[in-house]
């Protein structure tokens, strides 16, 4: 029974094959326009934030009464990895992070478990605590952010316009939600003078209670008659600020109007919460989140059309600026990738045409779009998207997907040169190399398997490399045995003369090549020893290559952080931000800038580290003209830090690619006693500062902050009839203010706040003069029964897995890689680590830790890759000895990869590691085809020596062509910030490995099987 030949079947059904090819081509075009497009692939943010407020408590009290209780319960969670938290005066924030190998589909249930466990102990939290509040949408990214601003316009006017625009934009297709950013809630303040109240004999707390009763919304009942029900409505609620001032308040038998003893005014939250400013103007922002199934480019077009309509309805003088524009970024990124893709395609086609000729090269050129169309169609069917990673993977695949087609058409062309007819020539490749090619293709795909199985954020971020490579390479094999024979049958012609196989390879070049191969076989020991030595040098060289976790983004934005000392006021942060605005406004390289005062920027880029609310923080997002301008702006800002901002811890950063990471260089100190932890952390900081490559060494506990401690004389207080509770309420009413009702205006509820006048609230030296109502109805100053002390307390206290933890952090100078700097510092920390008391720990964090976690998630699958590869090789070669022979060629790529990375100064990181692992599959692919050819030649009657030499000579051209196509396709990608190191590793590794396949593999084969030359008499000649 004749074996089935797929290529022959294709040629027997040419009409059907042509129809399928046309359908596939149009399907690919359709898929390209239907595939979702975004800047970065989606990946699950494995962080939940649990926030609880405890007004009036110190950081230590918050830690003991709130944070520790909550953490103890949350620690019961399954799949929990890290529990980080900080406690500040009046505020507890816990970050819940599950293990990286937790499947994304299980994350929502894990967040539900967090809520459940916290609810179990909610009633045990101390009285006066507010919350907890949960945020499991920490990773939501705004596709676009609009800023509404205008000189002379109030926050109320800006908010009204932004809220109106929000309602209209929510109607746009694929808009999931829209948040207002930087709004300041309106308040009505009733400000009193305690001296005035004392003169009138009024108690501040009693006045506040009277105001609350006056404006409460309480049902007055309903009159039920036989005909209808009549609800009873009472007037008297506030309807204007003036009505509040005129409100008569009955107190202690007297009736006074509010305006007689207090000043009523309408304003905004004081001190403010997060403020947003655009180009020096106060603004209110709209952050738009896209539906996960949406197309960001289509969303951008729809929102632009809606924005034009909205601008026509805005008040005169109001501007709308687009400060985050993901559609534009995605469009630009995809344009750059497509340009790279077409450069790579041109390189591949150039190799095809120059080496194979026009007609033969045309077959390869026509196969490429068919395979790509099939890949795009599969991406659509499997719900994949076009983004940074999938496009880069397509370019990586481009250099490899022509390999099978080149092998197939080169073999067909050679048979036509020998005088075969078109049918036999077109079907010969399937008989001779289809299954070795399939095995080689599968081995190449297996090389990318670790990234497909990696259980980490980095693995989830890059998983589409494996998906796209797997799809495209499998389709390339199908193309080689289906489309290539079909196209070759149509385009190639039978040669007018026939030639013997020996004649085709009996040229000066092939004769020299044959001589070199024979020399390598004869001097096999020298070749093997030289190759092993070269491999050892390559491994040593790789250890000298700078390490990097993930590369920086090529986006032109610059992030500026301005940190004031812990405890600084919002007003001081705002003044500092305005000084930075003044500098940026004069910089010609700056297109626009947005300031966020009191917190960090909203997440406009998936991979940023989002800073939470901090009154001592101002963060800028600066858009520069281009990447060169970005570098100039960064240098000028760093100079300004040293001259114009002496009291500010300033930081200027580019955007990162890959899982978010705050500081690249981090060392953590953990232990039971915070004082001991602090001492150890200070010693670690000294070692880090001694390294010349570190910048801005700091820790996350910051400085201790001053506070006023009031020591109450209990005997005097009891004699005066003053309790701790009444005193606390009086001071809160005086300084912070207490709620005195709500003013209802349309759909708004505006808080009415009862507090002291501004000059009384902001003068710390006047605290002793604050008058307090005593038990006998009189007043007395605080100084009569209170002693005043200024003490220092922690501004923030961090925990990690319930241990007090201080993270000592730093940036590194430009041109240095954080893992390399960490590697220099770690040995110098050893003396500190050796002296640590029991129960205290020193850990490495930052990019060194993240790179280790990500690389471990890749390397853990290497045994599976080895097993699957061995199975595939055994299935093909059916010989254990030949299988291991092919297998030992896998590491050869390290040699060229290491030299290339060092030569081009490309860092060795996560993506470069993927390239080196994938190289092993590419090398074994060539090896298995060559070894299979040797075996076939031996079965055809050639002796082992001749089979080794002649098979290598015949396989040289396709091996060289496929390697050249892959290497040249990598050149455009080598300029890419993300895939550059991977492309360089593959280029260098494949270049050296190709040479070794031609010269080292024959020598290894001869040594492995102890092959001897057969002399003319048929006897073996020992070598």
Note the main attributes of this structure.
Alpha-Beta Plaits, 19% strand, nine-stranded antiparallel β-sheet, Multidrug efflux transporter AcrB TolC docking domain, DN and DC subdomains, alpha+beta, 34 helices, Multidrug efflux transporter AcrB transmembrane fold, 1023 residues
Describe this structure in words.
It is a single chain. Among the domains are: 1-34 and 357-493, Up-down Bundle (Multidrug efflux transporter AcrB transmembrane fold), CATH 1.20.1640.10; 46-137, Multidrug efflux transporter AcrB pore domain (Alpha-Beta Plaits, 2-Layer Sandwich), CATH 3.30.70; 203-217 and 234-260 and 705-794, Multidrug efflux transporter AcrB TolC docking domain, DN and DC subdomains; 506-544 and 879-1013, Up-down Bundle (Multidrug efflux transporter AcrB transmembrane fold), CATH 1.20.1640; 553-655, Multidrug efflux transporter AcrB pore domain (Alpha-Beta Plaits, 2-Layer Sandwich). Strand 8 (222-224) and strand 9 (229-231) form a beta hairpin. Residues 498-502 have low confidence and may be disordered. Strands 1, 2, 3, 4, 20, 21, 28, 29 and 30 form a 9-stranded antiparallel β-sheet that branches. Strands 5, 6, 13, 14, 15, 16, 17, 18 and 19 form a 9-stranded antiparallel β-sheet that branches. A 4-stranded mixed β-sheet has the order 12-7-24-23. With 1023 residues, it is α+β, with helices and mostly antiparallel strands. It is built from 34 helices and 32 strands.
């Amino acid at each position: 029974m004749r074996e089935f030949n797929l290529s022959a079947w294709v040629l027997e059904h040419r009409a059907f094959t042509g129809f399928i090819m046309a359908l596939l081509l149009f399907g690919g075009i359709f898929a390209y326009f239907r595939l979702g497009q975004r800047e970065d692939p989606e990946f699950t943010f494995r962080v939940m934030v649990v926030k609880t407020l405890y007004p009036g408590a110190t950081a230590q009290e918050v830690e003991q009464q709130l944070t520790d209780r909550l953490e103890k319960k949350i620690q019961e969670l399954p799949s929990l990895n890290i529990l980080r938290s900080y406690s500040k005066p009046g505020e507890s924030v816990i970050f819940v992070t599950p293990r990286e190998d937790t499947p994304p589909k299980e994350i929502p249930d894990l967040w539900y478990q967090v809520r459940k466990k916290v609810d179990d102990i909610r009633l045990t939290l101390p009285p006066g605590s507010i919350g907890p509040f949960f945020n499991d949408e920490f990773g939501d990214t705004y596709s676009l952010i609009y800023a509404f601003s205008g000189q002379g316009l109030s926050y109320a006017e800006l908010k009204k316009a932004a809220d109106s625009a929000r309602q209209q934009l929510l109607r746009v297709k694929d808009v999931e939600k829209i948040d207002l950013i930087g709004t300041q809630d309106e308040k009505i303040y009733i400000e009193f003078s305690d001296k005035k109240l004392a003169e009138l004999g009024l108690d501040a707390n009693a006045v506040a209670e009277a105001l609350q009763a006056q404006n409460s919304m309480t049902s007055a009942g309903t009159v039920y008659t036989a005909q209808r029900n009549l609800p009873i409505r009472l007037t008297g609620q506030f309807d204007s600020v003036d009505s509040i001032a005129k409100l008569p308040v009955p107190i202690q038998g007297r009736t006074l109007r509010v305006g007689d003893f207090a000043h009523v005014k309408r304003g905004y939250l004081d001190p403010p919460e997060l403020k947003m400013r655009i180009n020096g103007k106060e603004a209110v922002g709209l952050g738009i989140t896209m539906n996960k199934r949406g197309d960001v480019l289509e969303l951008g077009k729809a929102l632009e059309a809606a924005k034009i309509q909205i601008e026509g309805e805005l008040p005169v003088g109001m501007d709308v600026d687009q400060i985050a524009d993901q559609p534009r970024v995605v469009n630009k990124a995809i344009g750059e990738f497509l340009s790279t893709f077409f450069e790579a395609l041109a390189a591949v086609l150039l190799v095809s045409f120059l080496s194979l000729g026009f007609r033969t090269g045309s077959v390869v050129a026509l196969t490429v779009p068919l395979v790509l169309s099939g890949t795009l169609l599969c991406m659509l069917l499997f719900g994949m998207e076009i983004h940074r990673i999938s496009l880069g993977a397509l370019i990586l695949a481009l250099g490899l997907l022509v390999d099978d087609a080149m092998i197939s058409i080169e073999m067909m062309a050679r048979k036509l040169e020998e005088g075969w007819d078109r049918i036999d020539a077109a079907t010969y490749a399937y008989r001779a190399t289809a299954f070795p090619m399939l095995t080689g293709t599968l081995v190449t795909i297996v090389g990318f398997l670790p990234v497909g199985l990696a259980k980490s954020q980095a693995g989830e971020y890059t998983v589409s490399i494996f998906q796209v490579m797997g799809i495209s390479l499998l389709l390339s094999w199908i193309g080689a045995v289906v489309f290539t024979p079909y196209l070759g049958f149509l385009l190639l012609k039978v040669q007018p003369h026939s030639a013997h196989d020996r004649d085709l390879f009996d040229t000066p070049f092939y004769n020299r090549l044959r001589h070199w191969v024979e020399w390598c076989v004869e001097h096999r020991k020298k070749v093997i020893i030289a190759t092993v030595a070269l491999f050892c040098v390559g491994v040593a060289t790789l250890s000298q290559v700078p390490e990097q976790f993930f590369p920086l983004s090529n986006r032109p934005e610059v992030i500026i952080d301005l940190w004031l000392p812990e405890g600084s006021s919002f007003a001081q942060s705002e003044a500092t931000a305005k000084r930075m605005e003044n500098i940026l406004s004069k910089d010609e390289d700056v297109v626009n800038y947005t300031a966020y005062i009191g917190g960090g920027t909203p997440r406009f880029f998936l991979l940023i580290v989002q800073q939470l609310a901090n009154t001592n923080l101002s963060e800028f997002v600066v858009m520069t003209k281009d990447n060169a301008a970005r570098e100039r702006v960064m240098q000028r800002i760093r100079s300004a830090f040293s001259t114009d901002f002496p009291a500010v811890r300033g930081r200027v950063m580019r955007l990162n690619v890959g899982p978010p990471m705050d500081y690249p260089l981090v060392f953590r100190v953990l232990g039971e006693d915070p004082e001991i932890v602090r001492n150890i952390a200070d010693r670690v900081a000294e070692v880090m500062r001694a390294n010349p490559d570190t910048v801005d060494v700091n820790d996350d506990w910051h400085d201790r902050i001053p506070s006023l401690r009031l020591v109450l004389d209990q005997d005097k207080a009891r004699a005066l009839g003053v309790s701790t509770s009444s005193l606390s309420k009086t001071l809160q009413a005086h300084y912070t203010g207490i709620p005195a009702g709500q003013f209802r205006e349309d759909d708004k509820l505006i808080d009415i706040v009862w507090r002291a006048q501004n000059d009384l609230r902001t003068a710390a030296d006047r605290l002793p003069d604050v008058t307090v109502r005593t038990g006998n109805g009189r007043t007395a100053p605080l100084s009569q029964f209170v002693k005043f002390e200024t003490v220092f307390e922690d501004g923030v206290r961090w925990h990690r897995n319930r241990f007090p933890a201080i993270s000592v952090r730093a940036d590194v100078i430009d041109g240095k890689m954080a893992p390399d700097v960490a590697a220099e510092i770690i040995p110098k920390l050893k003396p500190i680590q050796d002296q640590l008391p029991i129960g205290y720990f020193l850990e490495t964090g930052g990019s060194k830790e993240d790179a280790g976690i990500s690389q471990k998630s890749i390397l853990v699958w290497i045994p599976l890759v080895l097993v699957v590869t061995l199975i595939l090789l055994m299935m093909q070669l059916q010989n254990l000895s030949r299988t291991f022979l092919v297998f030992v060629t896998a590491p050869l790529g390290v040699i060229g990869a290491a030299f290339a990375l060092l030569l081009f100064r490309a860092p060795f990181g996560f993506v470069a590691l993927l390239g080196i692992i994938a190289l092993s599959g590419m090398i074994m692919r060539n090896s298995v085809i060559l070894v299979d050819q040797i075996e076939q030649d031996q079965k055809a009657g050639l002796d082992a020596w001749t089979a080794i030499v002649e098979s290598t000579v015949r396989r040289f051209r396709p091996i060289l062509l496929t390697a050249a196509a892959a290497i040249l396709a990598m050149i455009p990608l080598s300029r890419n910030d993300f895939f550059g190191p991977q492309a360089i590793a593959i280029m260098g590794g494949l270049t050296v490995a190709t040479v070794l396949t031609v010269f080292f593999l024959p020598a290894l084969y001869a040594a492995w099987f102890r092959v001897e030359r057969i002399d003319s008499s048929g006897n073996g000649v020992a070598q």
